[in-house]
From TrEMBL:
Swiss-Prot/TrEMBL keywords: Lectin, Repeat, Signal
MIR domain sequence ranges: 189-247, 255-311, 319-372
Pfam families, per the entry: Laminin_G_3
KW Plastid (keyword) present: no
Any one GO MF annotation of this record: carbohydrate binding
Keyword Transit peptide listed: no
Entry-linked InterPro entries: ConA-like_dom_sf (IPR013320), MIR_dom_sf (IPR036300), MIR_motif (IPR016093)
Protein name, per record: Concanavalin A-like lectin/glucanase
Length: 373
């Protein structure tokens, strides 16, 4: 009689938990969903620094080259290295399908493997980035094993320095649609609340909203203003972190969720200054594009107020609450709602100019909001 596999999955780590090179979590084979000839693992991962050695993320097997499945990070750049053991080779798979993970940024990673379909697929943030297809399909097979599953350090491989959460083990090969569903799973998304420490990443260029303490000259008797820029695709915990606060003069309760289409403010964690914009009178424009300046200043007033919405090129209507990972647009209230904007225009020091420009419908108005733990 034919055997029918029951689809099962288990969340092994909910987290997030911190991991170092010597840390590991071990799950016995008998405690995992029973696998026949296919499996998937999904997880969320944040790397704190690149290692000079290869780093194990997960490895199932009793020794180094019994490795179905295995996911490592390559040395010095933390690119993905996804492998499995086969009947013709003990080390088969995908090598560096990506350019490497950026530091201090959460990623969703999916590894899917199927012997009947003769393929291994790798996804980052729901996007398919690489695969390995088995040729000679009648004679070549994936070899599964009954060894333990290691998260972090495994056999001769050190673990990674960072954080991991939502490690899920499936006994079937997830479809691309199921990978995307897992990536967007609302149960894994954290709400943004008043008091949250966040970073804003410019979606088009991948650079974070930041400062270098460069002063804008706005004339005499004007409170000192500092230039806001985009600088670097790796998070700078000193210059790129902001706190969500209420609008000027509005009482809020720290810990309450932030509603979309609401007026809020941003306080720079390192300096205590507020994200600000103002009119373009008296030549107060950005140095390159001559658009409306975005600055930081210590004065607390209505120039610090911004409307927050999920990015939508066709409508301003939005409901619900702000969530970690949302793609948003920010609109400056005092100057009739031009949207926070950046592009590839570089300043003299190689940083990226930031301004207020447009109605929020352009790709350059798109920002991803990320909780900083």
């Amino acid at each position: 009689m034919p055997k029918f596999a029951v689809r099962e999955w288990d969340e092994l780590i909910s987290g997030p938990i911190s991991m170092g090179e010597q840390d590991q979590r071990v799950f016995a084979h008998a405690d995992l969903p029973a696998v026949n000839d296919k499996l998937s693992i999904t997880l969320r991962l944040k790397i704190h620094n690149h290692s000079s050695n290869w780093s194990a993320v997960f490895h199932k097997g009793t020794e180094d080259f019994i490795r179905t499945p295995l996911l490592q990070l390559t040395k010095n750049k933390s690119a993905l290295h996804a492998r499995f053991t086969a009947n013709w080779n003990s080390d088969v798979g995908v090598y560096e399908p990506d350019d490497g993970l950026l530091l201090n940024r959460w990623y969703h990673i999916a590894y899917t493997l199927s012997d009947p379909e003769k393929r291994l697929d790798i996804y980052i943030d729901g996007e398919w980035i690489g695969f390995y297809g088995i040729s000679k399909i009648k004679v070549r097979k994936v070899i599964f094993n009954d060894g333990p599953l290691y998260i972090g350090r495994a056999h001769s491989s050190l673990g990674f320095n960072g954080e991991i959460s939502n490690v899920r083990y499936f006994n079937w090969r997830l479809s691309p649609e199921e990978v995307i569903e897992d990536y967007f799973d609302e149960s894994q998304k954290k709400p943004i609340v008043y008091g949250s420490k966040i970073a804003l990443a410019h979606v088009c260029t991948g650079k974070y909203l930041s400062t270098k303490g460069i002063k804008y000259d706005l004339g005499r008797n004007v409170q000192q203003h500092y230039m806001v820029i985009c600088d670097g695709q790796e998070l700078d915990l000193k210059n790129d972190v902001w706190t969500i606060i209420g609008a000027n003069g509005i009482s809020i309760k720290e810990g309450d969720p932030v509603s979309l289409n609401n007026i809020i403010g941003f306080k720079h964690q390192a300096t205590g200054c507020y994200l600000n914009s103002h009119g373009t009178n008296y030549g107060r424009v950005t140095p390159m594009s001559k658009q409306q300046q975005v600055t930081m200043c210590s004065d607390r007033d209505s120039n610090n107020d911004w409307v927050i919405r999920r990015y939508n090129s066709t409508t301003s209507y939005d409901v619900g609450h702000l969530m970690n990972g949302d793609i948003i647009s920010l609109f400056h209230i005092r100057t009739n709602k031009p949207a926070l904007y950046s592009n590839a225009i570089l300043l003299g020091d190689g940083t990226q100019e930031v301004s207020c420009y447009g109605d929020g419908s352009e790709n350059n108005n798109k920002w991803r909001i990320e909780i900083i733990n």
